[in-house]
Write a structure and sequence with these properties.
The structure holds two protein chains of two kinds. By secondary structure, chain A is of the alpha/beta class. Chain A has two domains: about 1-245, 3-Layer(aba) Sandwich (Rossmann fold); about 245-339, 2-Layer Sandwich (Alpha-Beta Plaits), CATH 3.30.70.260. Chain A contains twelve helices and 14 strands. The chains are: A alpha/beta, B mainly alpha.
Chain lengths: ~350, ~220
């Protein structure tokens, strides 16, 4: 269990004092995946570094597994850090070492002998799915593979806690997905507590159980991910929640529309690009003489054409007309779903 | 034919030997001492592993002062010291203390630049693994800056060769001395050109070798 009690951190620069973290109190339970969300400069990076004491708090207490970290000597602290793994946005691998040697580094630091080290490294390579890449250098790996090395390295000394500092921010959506899968698998299999800081709400939504929202050094909102998403209270939280177009969000929109328009059909048209030039909806209406109203729409114009969705409502219309309408849209590469 | 006859090959070989001896002996010492001072400067910086403003300032001033003194003057200033430890102020060995003193601050600066270019993130990562400062230095800082440290040795080596030529002017021997005393003073162009050519070849070989090693070890 990680307990932060009234933690504040002030950086004293020559010109002014920067209050990065202000009076933060959080309890993170064992085995939890805890997300800390905020815009850049909100203080979340500093907060996560207080957990492994890369930054010392200016005031307040850090207690991990009932041990007060502020009383530890440097030597004891280094020992403790071996049990707190950390992964980074830019992976922070050593270019001069191979995958194998990078993962071996924390074991060298912990003072294991060569045989133990190589056994453990091989286990870790299997765990993160990098078999066959042992002798590659980081420069020969993709971003996702680099982060896998980072994860293996962070897990080398069997930590109780894994800190993730924007671990997926430099990755594309698919790779992010696979890294998040790996992290939740590790969380389930090894029971490691994971603390993730991120500005990507999707990440929190996908794997975190609890979330804290940080703004200007304060934690402005905290709770179960579901509750925070369903009823965001603080302005910053609302902005974060609005920014995601996720499954849950679609469900909410569709439910609301159904309540508003109980009669007739509601269709969701998804535009996936390549059909931007033609007035498709207008043509469909012209052909079928159906009366259609647009309820909600979110179309972005990109290089690939129009991408986004439109909800339409058809109050009166024969099945034939609706079929013709839908067929015309489908033949123009528009995805149609009945809500 | 006449041109070749004017060259005393034994003399040229002796001079080459002296130049190589002076350059490489002082390069080895300068590399070791310069590296240590470079590490000291880097770790005592304001965001360093052993932050120490006082030590950093003092070492920094000494390095700057030594770098500012022109080599030809430095050699003269160092003479009493040379006399005390080598026993003479003439010959190749006598040039070595002043060559080292000139090259150490030069290489130390290059080391600091090399260390500064190491990704701070890797140092932070090793801290997060519980590494001691000493482990960070020899497991992360040195290997991660190795290509730059090696090109630094190349640059320092080449500077040392030109310093030995200057040392020749005050009686250290070597190719510089040969070119000056026989080539210039006695107007023997054959000696002047051949000595110059050999110096040029040494420089090119050192540069080529350095570049090759850097290319081999740099996996970025």
């Amino acid at each position: 269990m990680i307990e932060l009690k009234n933690i504040s951190k002030t950086f004293n620069t020559r010109k002014l004092d920067i209050h990065a973290v202000k009076d933060v109190s959080v309890t993170i339970n064992e085995g939890e995946i805890f997300g800390i969300v905020g815009y850049s400069g909100a203080g979340k990076s500093t907060l996560v570094r207080i957990i492994n004491q890369l930054e010392k708090q200016s005031s307040g207490q850090l207690i991990i597994n009932n041990e007060d970290f502020s009383t530890l000597s440097n030597k004891e602290l280094r020992k403790k850090r071996q049990k707190i793994g950390m992964i980074f946005q830019h992976f922070n691998l050593l270019w001069s070492r191979t995958v194998f040697k990078n993962i071996e580094l924390p074991l060298e630091i912990a003072g294991l002998d060569k045989k133990q080290r190589s056994e453990r490294v091989n286990e870790l390579i299997k765990l993160v799915g990098l078999e066959g890449r042992e002798d590659s250098f980081p420069s020969q790996l993709s971003g996702g593979q680099k982060q896998r090395v980072g994860i293996a390295r962070a897990l080398a000394n069997d930590p109780d806690i894994l800190l993730c500092d924007e671990a997926t921010s430099a990755l594309d959506p698919d790779t992010t997905e696979s890294i998040l899968d790996l992290l939740s698998q590790i969380n389930e299999d090894l029971g490691i507590t994971i603390v993730m800081i991120t500005h990507q709400m999707e990440v929190v939504q996908k794997i975190c159980q609890k979330v804290a929202i940080m703004s200007d050094g304060y934690i402005v909102e905290m709770g179960n991910v579901k509750d925070v998403f369903a009823h965001p209270k603080h302005e910053v939280t609302k902005r974060f929640v609005q920014n995601i177009d996720s499954g849950k969000n679609i469900e909410r929109i569709q439910k609301e529309l159904k309540e508003l328009y109980p009669n007739g059909e509601i269709l969701r048209l998804t535009f996936t690009g390549g059909n931007s030039d033609k007035p498709i909806i207008a043509n469909a209406i012209y052909k079928t003489k159906l009366l259609v109203s647009i309820l909600d729409s979110n179309i972005n114009h990109t290089k690939l054409g129009a991408i986004g969705f439109t909800y339409i409502h058809i109050e009166n219309g024969s099945e034939n007309q609706i079929n013709e309408f839908v067929n015309y849209l489908v033949s123009n590469d528009v995805k149609v779903e009945v809500v | 034919m006449n041109f070749i006859k004017k060259i005393d090959f034994n003399q040229l070989l002796t001079a080459l030997n002296e130049t190589l001896y002076m350059s490489f002996t002082s390069l080895i010492f300068a590399t070791i001492i310069g590296l240590l001072i470079g590490i000291l400067l880097f770790v005592t910086q304001s965001d360093g592993l052993y932050k120490n403003k006082f030590v950093n300032r003092i070492v920094d001033i000494i390095v700057n002062v030594l770098r500012a003194v022109p080599f030809i003057i430095l050699m003269i200033l160092v003479m009493p010291f040379t006399k005390a430890i080598v026993g003479t102020i003439l010959g190749a060995s006598a040039a070595i203390p002043s060559l080292i003193i000139a090259a150490v601050p030069f290489y130390a600066r290059l080391c600091v630049i090399a260390f500064t270019e190491v990704d701070k993130g890797t140092i932070e990562a090793s801290k997060s693994m519980g590494a001691t400062n000493w482990q960070i230095i020899y497991k992360v800082l040195l290997p991660e800056s190795l290509p730059a440290l090696i090109s630094g040795i190349t640059v320092t080596g080449i500077s040392l060769i030109s310093y030995t030529a200057m040392a020749g002017a005050i009686g250290s021997g070597g190719l510089g001395n040969l070119a000056y005393m026989y080539g210039w003073v006695r107007r023997n162009n054959a000696v002047l050109y051949s000595a110059t050519l050999i110096i040029l070849i040494i420089v090119l070989v050192i540069q080529g070798l350095g570049d090759y090693i850097v290319k081999k070890i740099d996996k970025r």
